[in-house]
Every structure is written in structure tokens, then in C-alpha cells.
Write a structure and sequence with these properties.
Layout lengths: L2 H15 L12 H26 L8 H26 L5 H10 L16 H18 L8 H29 L3 H20 L11 H6 L7 H19 L9 E3 L4 E3 L5 H11 L3 H14 L1 H23 L1
Antiparallel strand pairs: 1-2
Helix pairs in contact: 2-3, 3-6, 5-6, 5-7, 5-9
The structure holds benzoyl coenzyme A.
């Protein structure tokens, strides 16, 4: 490494260690840039693909109030995806490139969105569990060292907290409803509990990116730390709803003050991550079709922009 590059690297790490944000025009090591592009674009894809399992229920929401809530939530997620794609663009990657990687299957997105939403109760379980997990993971990202990512996360987290609350409230209504409704809530809980624990990523020992991401203060907590926090937070919420946690090994350890839980099915996790989950193919097919069918909108917007530019130039000349 050249002396100047060592100095730049040292200066960069000093800024990180002193909690000074890195901004788009600042010098940064190539590996930091690549890690951010990977994480931010995968996060954006997760938001966009995450709209699909819920959009499935908009036309079947049981009341006008629930339909409005669900519509607003899905729209928020579209917005989150857009802020995040913009944050990724500040690192020198184009929207076309990130979308190409999603459509070709090269880029990952959260494993959780490859599970089907089978009943209305799944809308409650997704809001309560999936958004609950997302908040735990994302609140520390509001302090990520890269400015545009951290700032996008502040707004996203505010909206996520409403998403989580509406999910818990929906589950409460079902859990306090008829025996059939309570059964639906329990069934949804049984199906979403384990996939939600997988959202936090592989065990720390298998998490190849954590060490560097923590040194760069992109990640503030490891995958296992956040997963444990989620279990500790969610078990009392499930008990309050009167639902049974689908884990016979779950028990509270008085000494550590934490819940111990059973082994996650890591084979299932990696299978889903590698593209072989229940809905992987369907999700990507829907995204590809939406992209192709939206080409005329992008073309029209570009043509309109060009026309306006030309008109403004003509005005300046005359
Ligand atoms: N699914 O070294 P690791 C939402 C990959 S959206 C798929 O620990 P890292 C919502 C990982 O990418 C929620 N892949 O990685 C939206 C890596 O592969 P690559 C999305 C996963 O990055 C709509 C490999 O496994 N949230 O909440 O240090 C409706 C090894 O992992 C998963 C974010 O994206 C997974 N679950 O840590 C409702 C948050 N886990 O990339 C809700 C931002 C791991 O090296 N992202 N992999 O090929 C993060 O915080 C981190 O990227 C992760 C993983 C904690 C997810």
C-alpha cells in the first residue's frame, strides 16, 4: 500500500472511531464501499420484495379500516426501498445495476419474504414479528457510519414502529376473538416464528461480514446479539396475547436473565437464501414482470424530462 493510501486509511478509521460520519465525497476504502453497496441494496430489495406477501391481502382485508392500514404500510415499504436505492446510488452504483442483480438472482434479499402469507392472521404476524425484528436490526443502523444510510434509517424506523404496532393490535383482536380466530392467530405465529429468527442472519461463527462491518461501525451488534434481544422482547408479548411459543425448548434462564431457545433449522435458512425457498421463484418473477411492464413509464418520464430541458435551453437562447 502507498504511504498516501495508508494515511487516508488511517484518517478514515480515525473518523469512524470518533463517530464522525463518512459522506459520499469522502475517501473510503474500496471494501467499505462494496460492503455498503451490498448491504444497502439488499436492504432496498428486501423492502420492495417485502411488499409482495402483504399486497396479496389488500383486496381481501376484512374492513375498510384494515384495508387502509395495509395499503399505507405497503406504500411505506415502497418508499423505504426508494430511499435505500438512492443511498446506494451515492456510492457510485446505478439503479439499473442494483435491479439487474436482483432480477438475475445475484443479489440477496431477506429470506423472510420467501414464505407465503396463507391467512389474514399472517398480516398480524408479519407486522408484529417481521417488523419487530426489522426495528431491532434497524434502530442501530440509524447510527451507521455512512451518512446517507444512517439518515434514511431514521425515517424508516419511525414508520416501522407503526407497522409493528398495527400488527400486534391485529393479533390482539384475533387472539381475543372467537376460538377460530384465536386458532388462526396461533397458526400464523407457528409458521412465522422460526423464519423471523432467521432474519437476523447466520450464527456469529458463520457470519463472514460481521467483523469488518463492526470495525467500520456499519453494524453495532452481532446477529446473535440481536436475535437474543428479539426473543427476550417477544416472548412476553406472545404470553400477553395468550399464544404458545412454538418451541418446546424455550425457557427462561434466571441467572443470565435471557430466554434460551431451540436450534434454528440452518439447513432451511441456507436453502431459502440460495433461492430454493417456497416463494423465491414467484417473488423474482413478479418483480421482473413489474420492471418490464413499467418500461414505458420510465421511457415517458425520460422523454418528458428531455423535452423540458430542450425548452429551457431554447428559452435561454431566445
Ligand atoms: N436473508 O455475514 P452475514 C423489512 C446473507 S426489510 C437473506 O451475517 P451481514 C421489511 C448475507 O447477506 C428487512 N440473506 O451478513 C420489509 C451474507 O451474504 P452476502 C431487511 C441473508 O450483512 C417489508 C450471508 O448471508 N433488513 O424489514 O453482516 C415489510 C452471511 O451473512 C440473511 C435489512 O436488510 C437473511 N435473513 O448481516 C416488512 C437490514 N441474513 O451478502 C419488513 C440491513 C444474512 O455476503 N442488513 N444473509 O452474499 C443487515 O443488517 C445485515 O445485512 C444482516 C446480515 C443482519 C441481514
Amino acid at each position: 500500500m502507498e504511504t498516501t493510501e495508508i494515511n487516508l486509511e488511517q484518517h478514515f478509521q480515525n473518523k469512524i472511531d470518533n463517530e464522525i460520519r463518512i459522506e459520499p465525497k469522502d475517501w473510503m476504502p474500496e471494501a467499505y464501499r462494496k460492503t455498503l453497496i451490498r448491504q444497502i441494496s439488499q436492504h432496498a430489495h428486501s423492502e420492495i420484495v417485502g411488499m409482495l406477501p402483504e399486497a396479496n391481502w389488500i383486496t381481501r382485508a376484512p374492513s375498510l379500516k384494515r384495508k387502509k392500514i395495509l395499503l399505507a404500510k405497503v406504500q411505506d415499504e415502497g418508499g423505504h426501498g426508494l430511499y435505500l436505492y438512492c443511498a446506494a446510488e451515492t456510492l457510485g452504483v446505478t439503479r439499473d445495476e442494483t435491479l439487474r442483480d436482483l432480477h438475475s438472482g445475484k443479489a440477496k434479499y431477506s429470506s423472510i419474504f420467501n414464505y407465503p402469507t396463507l391467512t389474514w392472521a399472517d398480516m398480524g404476524a408479519v407486522g408484529w414479528l417481521v417488523d419487530g425484528a426489522a426495528i431491532l436490526n434497524q434502530v442501530p443502523l440509524c447510527r451507521a457510519s455512512y451518512g446517507p444510510y444512517a439518515r434514511a434509517m431514521v425515517r424508516i424506523c419511525k414508520e416501522e414502529s407503526f407497522h409493528q404496532r398495527q400488527g400486534y393490535e391485529l393479533m390482539m383482536k384475533l387472539a381475543q376473538g372467537s376460538p377460530e380466530q384465536k386458532e388462526m392467530a396461533q397458526d400464523a405465529f407457528n409458521r412465522w416464528w422460526w423464519p423471523t429468527l432467521m432474519m437476523f442472519g447466520p450464527r456469529d461463527a458463520e457470519s463472514g461480514n460481521t467483523e469488518a462491518s463492526m470495525n467500520w461501525r456499519i453494524k453495532r451488534f452481532s446477529n446473535d446479539e440481536l436475535r437474543q434481544r428479539f426473543v427476550d422482547m417477544t416472548v412476553p408479548q406472545a404470553e400477553y396475547l395468550g399464544l404458545t411459543i412454538p418451541d418446546p425448548e424455550l425457557k427462561f434462564n434466571e441467572e443470565t436473565g435471557h430466554y434460551e431457545f431451540g436450534e434454528i433449522d440452518w439447513e432451511e435458512f441456507w436453502n431459502v437464501v440460495k433461492g430454493n425457498g417456497m416463494c423465491n421463484k414467484e417473488r423474482i418473477d413478479v418483480r421482473r414482470t413489474a420492471f418490464d411492464e413499467g418500461a414505458w413509464v420510465r421511457d415517458a418520464a425520460t422523454a418528458y424530462h428531455e423535452k423540458r430541458k430542450q425548452k429551457e435551453q431554447q428559452k435561454k437562447i431566445s
